[in-house]
Design a protein that fits this description.
Layout (H helix, E strand, L loop, with lengths): L1 H15 L1 H17 L1 H25 L7 H20 L10 H14 L1 H26 L2
Length: 140
């Protein structure tokens, strides 16, 4: 029953976030046209989604991923949200203000909120499972 519920949660989150997911993938594809910085930020976002999918699949299977997956996936997602507006900036824009970064981050989070909330749970689940597995290794 737990596996069925987890599958339902993952599918529901991806369906509810599908517009944001497709939009981010579209922007990744278009970023290579504009600049190298856009391509690198696009790769960060693609890596974050790949880590999210890996964590989701392993959560459904009740199997923890390696420690680097949630750590680097979270870092890539946060850096992608912060760097995206700067990488996609027009060359005519001479300065960036913090409000531009916040607007882009809020828009990205709103469009992918169910997957963002699932990611917070997945990171906690996988890091806690890693800690439990390490503690059981050291018990005599």
């Amino acid at each position: 029953m737990k596996t069925t519920r987890r599958i339902f949660v993952v599918v529901a989150c991806y369906l509810l976030s599908s517009y944001g997911l497709l939009l981010s993938l579209m922007l990744i594809g278009m970023s290579g046209i504009k600049s190298l910085g856009g391509t690198l930020v696009g790769m960060l976002i693609l890596f974050a989604w790949a880590c999210h999918i890996m964590m989701s699949i392993n959560w459904v299977a009740d199997k923890p991923v390696q420690r680097w997956v949630p750590a680097y996936g979270t870092l890539a997602g946060i850096m992608g949200l912060i760097l995206w507006p700067m990488a996609m900036a027009d060359s005519s824009v001479k300065e960036f203000v913090l409000i531009d970064i916040l607007r882009a981050a809020v828009m990205g989070l709103v469009l992918t909120l169910p997957c963002f909330l699932l990611a917070m749970h997945l990171v906690r689940f996988h890091l806690r499972a890693q800690r439990t597995a390490q503690a059981s290794e050291f018990k005599p």
